[in-house]
Amino acid sequence: MSQTEVSQVKPPLTPLATLIGRELRSEKVEKPIIRYGQAALAKKGEDYFLIKPDCQRIPGNPETSFSVFAIFDGHNGISAAIYTKENLLSNVVSAIPEGASREDWLQALPRALVAGFVKTDIEFQQKGERSGTTVTFVVIDGWTVTVASVGDSRCILDTQGGVVSLLTVDHRLEENEEERQRVKASGGEVGRLNIFGGNEVGPLRCWPGGLCLSRSIGDTDVGEFIVPVPHVKQVKLSDAGGRLVIASDGIWDALSSDAAAKACRGLPAELAAKLVVKEALRTKGLKDDTTCLVVDIIPSVHPVLSSTPHKKNNGLSSLLFGKKSLKTTSKSSKLSAVGAVEELFEEGSAMLAERLGKDFPMNPDSGLYRCAICQVDQPSNEGLSVNSGPFFSPSSKPWEGPFLCANCRRKKDAMEGKRPIKPTLSA
Fold first, then answer.
1. Phi and psi (nearest 5°) for 350?
2. What three-state secondary structure class fits 249?
3. Where are the alpha helices (DSSP H) in 7-128?
4. Which residues form the signal peptide (predicted)?
5. Measured on CA atoms in the order 12, 244, 147, 288, is the torsion positive or negative?
6. Cα distance between the two ends of the chain
7. Who contacts 394 (Cβ-Cβ below 8 Å, separation ≥6)?
8. Residues 6+ apart with CB under 8 A from 10
9. Who has the most CB within 10 Å: 16, 73, 160, 210?
């Protein structure tokens, strides 16, 4: 769908350290309460979801808790969706240095999500199976929400006043001109199905493979120009809280972001998810797997939502749904302002050189360099920087990006069209 639902005005990004500092200085800011609900109707049985509200950055320390919610919309089978559900979180966490402070952990998370998505894709493709999956992966740590996505599942944020913000980007070739150009530049072809007589039908697809998405995990029989590199967005809510609606395209093909948010306002999360699915079914019927997660991030002093919808905002609902949109928060707004949302990070490039940073950490225990994607330690003479062509030579070639092992470098080159695409799997 079009991204025009979101305002084009974009405020300056606020440094994460500034926001964390405000939070630590304010005695009134407490960790929110997380309430969630899930509902689904199956047409093909290829949708999966993940709910983990009790993760811990430091095992055994509840003060380091964070929550993860995700939807995996499989296609051409279920194996990619299942594998990603079971392995993506651990691959993301492994890309963040152990023992990092909360501030460092949150700052490292966007890059770790990129590494985790790519690593999961590499691992799954080694299994030699054909299926693929979209992914919308949400991490909630206190009032900070980080969303990574490939494909056309979506996450929206509803804050006070009924203004809805889109936290993902749809990677459908039909509607994303930038992705069409990237696929073609990487060696793919973009076009519609041809029927007898030369008439073109259906949405734009990339060939070989015929996938209408430009990003996914899996899809081993499609060219590597279908990339697993996610769009990542990180925002910080005010202590007024907000509501996330995370859903597969079975919802978004039937409902706009505003319609989905409106369908469940004033309801507790569990009932809200069911109402969104019901409204999508009423609007368009059950044409695809339809899965919805609703996650409420609520101030601890107001843990319970009204169970009945209200036509007008009451005191409690005004605490949950804010008046300012993500894209129109003014530079002078304060974190404590009701409904204020501050953007910390957003990047959607498919180029790993732009997503993985330029540092190349050495493992202090082994003295080896660690691959930025697969986290495998290797001697420097057996790896490559993300931009350099020859093997790394400390005396002759400066580093131009993070350290990549040879296998992950091959993956990067294939995604960018710098080496031949792998052949199609035989039946």
1. -90, 0
2. helix
3. 16-25, 79-94, 102-125
4. none
5. negative
6. 34
7. 380
8. 327, 343
9. 73
Instruction: Indicate the SS3 state at residue 364.
Output: coil
Q: Which two tokens stand for residue 65?
A: 């808790």
The half-sphere exposure of 277 on its side-chain side, counting CA atoms within 13 A, is: 24
Tokens 């996938």 belong to residue: 211
Residues 299, 304, 308, 314: what is their CA dihedral angle, to the nearest 10 degrees? -40
**pLDDT value for 101:** 92
Encoded tokens for 255: 């409902």
Looking at residue 303, what is its pLDDT? 46
From the list 78, 109, 19, 118, the residue with the least C-alpha distance to 407 is: 118
Give the Cα-Cα-Cα angle 104, 105, 111 (nearest 5 degrees). 100
The closest alpha carbon to 228, from 93, 124, 94, belongs to 124
- The angle that helices 16-25 and 102-125 make with each other, rounded to 10 degrees, is 130
Instruction: Tally Cβ neighbours within 10 Å of residue 128.
Output: 9
Q: Which residues contact 100 (CB under 8 A, 6 or more apart)?
A: 57, 108
Q: Which amino acid would we find at residue 409? A: R
Distance CA 95, CA 107 (A): 12
**Coil/strand/helix, residue 185:** helix
Distance CA 241, CA 300 (A): 10
Q: How far is CA 104 from CA 16, 22, 112, 246, in A?
A: 9, 16, 12, 26
pLDDT digits (tens, 9 = 90+) for 3-38: 544 444 455 566 666 655 555 555 445 789 999 999
Residue with tokens 């368009």: 284
Q: Rounded to whole angstroms, how far apart are CA atoms 47 and 49? A: 7
- pLDDT per residue over 284-329, tens digit each? 888 889 999 999 999 987 544 433 344 434 333 333 443 333 333 3
Q: Could you tell me the two tokens for 248?
A: 């597969």
DSSP-assigned beta bridge partners for residue 144: 141, 236
User: Exposed, middle or buried: residue 390 (CB in 10 Å: 0-12, 13-18, 19+)?
Assistant: exposed
Q: Are 91 and 5 in contact, with CB atoms under 8 Å apart?
A: no
CA distances (Å), 242 to each of 158, 190, 321, in order? 6, 39, 6
